[in-house]
């Protein structure tokens, strides 16, 4: 009789172990499926982003040939390469129209520090910047950067720490974290 009880208890234990193992296997299978689906979605979204960027650049290249006065002034400077001239002409923000359905941030006039703060806040809220305003920022940045020297010497004797930032890979959340860290 004791042998039969032991066998029954062993049988029950074996069933519990098998159940736990099968449950673990099922959870593992679900986890692997979730990882695979997430990977596929990320890969697909990357392809969609690249397609959207390609479409944006095609739009920019096919925009009108009219030039704004600021771009005309830049193009009249001696030594401007033909490729650069074509790029400036094809990305002229004055020739890109904003659809009436556009709900994102608008940039009027020169870009200031307050403009950048407003843009960062809009990006935090998930708004998207229209191609016209992207081109406007890039054109103004180009003019400013061309006027600056390639190297800047800085003195670090009074600084307690230095923050070195590598490539952010387009991650706005990382950039916002850096801004919060350094005020």
From TrEMBL:
What is the top-level taxon of the source organism?
Eukaryota
Q: Name one Pfam family in it.
A: PPP5
Note the PROSITE patterns from the entry: IQ
Name of the protein in its database record: protein-serine/threonine phosphatase
User: What Gene Ontology terms describe what this protein does at the molecular function level?
Assistant: metal ion binding; protein serine/threonine phosphatase activity
Domain called PPP: residue spans? 83-151
EC code(s) of this entry = 3.1.3.16
Give the cofactors, semicolon-separated. Answer: Mn(2+)
């Amino acid at each position: 009789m004791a042998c039969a009880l032991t066998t029954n208890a062993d049988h029950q234990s074996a069933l519990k172990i098998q159940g736990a193992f099968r449950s673990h296997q099922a959870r593992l299978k679900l986890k692997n499926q979730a990882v695979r689906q997430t990977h596929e979605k990320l890969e697909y979204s990357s392809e969609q982003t690249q397609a959207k960027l390609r479409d944006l650049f095609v739009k920019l290249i096919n925009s009108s040939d009219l030039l704004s006065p600021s771009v005309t002034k830049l193009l009249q400077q001696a030594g401007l390469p033909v490729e650069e001239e074509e790029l400036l002409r094809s990305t002229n923000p004055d020739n890109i129209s904003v659809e009436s359905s556009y709900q994102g941030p608008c940039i009027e006039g020169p870009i200031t520090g307050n403009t950048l703060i407003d843009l960062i806040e809009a990006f935090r809220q998930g708004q998207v910047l229209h191609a016209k305003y992207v081109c406007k920022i890039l054109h103004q940045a180009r003019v400013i950067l061309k006027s600056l020297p390639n190297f800047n010497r800085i003195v670090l004797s009074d600084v307690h720490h230095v923050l070195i930032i590598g490539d952010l890979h387009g991650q706005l959340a990382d950039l916002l974290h850096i801004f919060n860290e350094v005020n």
